[in-house]
Amino acid sequence: MQGIERTAEIYARVFREMRPRTPVPLIRVEFRRYANANAQIRWHNDLLLVRLADTLESAPEDVAEALAQILLSKLFRRPVPSASNDRYRRYLNRRDIRRSLDLVRQIRGRKRLEHPQGCRFDLEQMFEDLNFRYFHGLMARPRIGWSPNASRTLLGHYDSSHNAIVLSRILDRPDTPKVAVEYVLFHEMLHLRYPAEHNGARRCVHTKAFKEAEKEFEHLREAKMLLRKLEPA
After folding, report:
1. Residue-wise over 200-211: b if at least 16 C-beta within 10 A, else e?
2. Cβ neighbour number for residue 75 with a 10 Å cutoff
3. At residue 232, does pLDDT exceed 50?
4. What is the per-residue pLDDT for 201?
5. What average pLDDT does the structure give for the chain?
6. Domains of the chain (ranges plus CATH)?
7. Average confidence (pLDDT) over 160-167
C-alpha cells in the first residue's frame, strides 16, 4: 500500500509541475503482474490511471519520478526529458535489475513458437548445418521454431529469457530462397554467441564483434537483398 500511495504522490507532483493551471485529477495507481517492466498511463473522465509492472514497485524514488516524467510527457505530447529517460534506462540496465526481469519473464511469460519442421524448411536441421559451418558445431541448440503468425516486420528474434529462436512463418514458403532463411537464422544464432552489452543507459544489441562475425556469412549481400523484397515497401 505504501508503494501505491508513494507513487500516486509522485505522479501528482509531476502533474502539477507540467500542468500548473490544471487541477490534479484523481490518481489511481495499479501494480500488475506483467511479464515485463511495462508502464501505461491513461487520463479519462477526471481519472488518471497509472498501471505499472509490480517489478517497478520497489524502484528508488528518483527512478519512479523519472518514469512519471516520461509517461506524463508522452500523455501531454511533450518531448521526453533526456535526463529522465537516461535515469530510467540506467536503472533498467543495472545487472541486478536485468537478472530480476529475466527471471520474471521466465516465470510469467509464455513463449509461443511452433514446431521447427515447417512446410518447406526444418529449422533444427538448418541450425545444425549452420552450427557446423560457422561455429565448429559447438553451439548448444536453444528452443527453436516458427512463429504462429507470418510477420513481415519481425523476421526473426532471439529471446534470451526463454533461450528461444523464433523465425517468422512468412519465410517458410516455397518461393523463399534457402539462403535468405539461413541468414535470418544465422543472425539470431549470433545473438547467442554475442549477447547484448549494457553501459549505463545504453544497450548495444549488435556489438562490434557481432557485426564482424556477421560478415562471415556466405552470400551475405545476396541474402539481405532477397529479404528486402519480403519487407513492406
Report:
1. eeeeeeeeeebe
2. 14
3. no
4. 65
5. 90
6. 2-108 (3.30.2010), 123-230 (3.30.2010.10)
7. 88
